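Attaching the record inline, Q. Sequence:
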Amino acid sequence: MASSKRRSEIHALSIEESHLRFASSDGSVTLLCQPGFLAKNQLPSMASKPFKVPSLSRTCGNEDEDRLLCPVRSLKFYLSRVKSIRGFRKRLFIP
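Structure, as predicted:
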């Protein structure tokens, strides 16, 4: 993903409403790890910080092939594809 986060942080991302937010204003997505997750370089007294992944929709036109590389578009596609098998899982990516 276009986040520069460690694998463990990517694995701990959550789909809960307050942890996965798509912005209609700029097309970006804001992500946050599951409650209780502690990153390798994070102090226990510090809360996890959300991070924003920008969309390419503002820089690419509808005819531009690069729009297919948009991480926000890919995430939306992934979420729709795994919806039927997700069940009760709250992690963003299903192993």
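The chain has a mean pLDDT of 84. The chain has two helices and three strands.

More tomorrow.
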